[in-house]
Specification:
The protein is α/β, with parallel strands linked by helices. The protein has helices spanning about 55-65, 80-90, 95, 110-115, 130-140, 150-155, 175-185, 225-235, and strands at about 10-15, 25-30, 35-40, 50, 100-105, 120-125, 145, 160-165, 185-195, 220, 235-240, 250-255. It has a single domain, classed as Rossmann fold, CATH 3.40.50. Helix 2 (about 80-90) packs across helix 4 (about 110-115). The model has no long low-confidence stretch (mean pLDDT about 90).
């Protein structure tokens, strides 16, 4: 049976970072599900993004059981992830030792365990049930939550350091994420963010050939300037840009010590 034709592609879409209503159509990309996705580029902040975003129900189903094919007894490359987490955690000693720490998008819990080893009071948060099942089964001395950012925000918890790696690109817009940071990061606190960097020298000039261009898993694509703008607009300042040999951001932001909590 022939598939129905794809609906016509709109030529413009609103940017979810800066709000420009005239982000221009850039290209099509085909996802794991073989569906065609329309990608747009904002002329103001340079965000590249999928529009329209998949429904909340579709994304929830994907991350609940399918993502990374994890289970309570299995997580891909678990051994190497655990050792990488230990080494990676050392770069954040000043932000972790004796501090309240949250890992947003904690996956199998490897960074949560590593930060706990350094003396942090650490929580892990993820919407992937199978990932949290693994984290709870293997790092039972740590605390993990499987819930949305909105649900977690209602807990009223606050943190000195929020670690988030390979999360921003998955979100159907950054608003809920940044609202959560506004609510939970203490004055003077830090946020570490990493995400695919389409402005990196090693990113293919033809973004359709980039392995990170994989909707519906990845929906937002930031240049370095776009990511800095996103955090600056929410009152954070760039504290350190670690840089990366691979096409990825690696930035530490700080909230001013004299800011007012929202």
């Amino acid at each position: 049976m022939n598939q129905p034709p794809c609906p016509p592609t709109p030529q413009e879409a609103p940017c979810p970072v800066c709000g420009n209503a005239h982000a221009a159509f850039a290209f099509h990309a085909y996802g794991y599900d073989l569906n065609r996705y329309d990608l747009f580029r904002c002329p103001t902040c340079a965000l590249v993004f999928v529009s329209p975003f998949p429904s909340a129900e579709a994304l929830g189903a994907f991350y609940h059981t399918t993502y990374r094919q994890a289970s309570a007894s299995f997580y891909p490359k678990a051994s190497s992830r655990r050792w990488r987490a230990i080494w990676r955690s050392l770069a954040f000693l000043p932000q972790v030792v004796g501090k309240d720490v949250l890992d947003i998008g904690c996956g199998g819990g490897f960074m949560v365990e590593a930060f706990t080893r350094l003396g942090g009071r650490v929580l892990g948060l993820d919407i992937s049930q199978n990932s949290i099942d693994y984290a709870r089964a293997h790092f039972g001395h740590c605390t993990f939550y499987c819930e949305s950012l909105t649900e977690f925000r209602k807990r009223g918890l606050q943190f000195d350091f929020v670690f988030t790696s390979e999360v921003l690109e998955h979100l159907p817009g950054p608003a809920e994420f940044m609202q959560t940071l506004d609510a939970i990061v203490r004055p003077g606190g830090f946020v570490y963010a990493s995400a695919p960097d389409y402005s990196h020298p090693r990113t293919p000039s033809d973004l359709t050939l980039w392995d990170a261009m994989c909707p519906p898993e990845h929906l937002l694509f930031y240049s370095a300037d776009t990511l800095i703008r996103l955090f600056t607009d929410h009152g954070f300042t760039l504290y350190r840009n670690f840089g990366s040999k691979s096409p990825a951001h690696s930035m530490l932001f700080r909230r001013p010590a004299d800011c007012c909590m929202q």
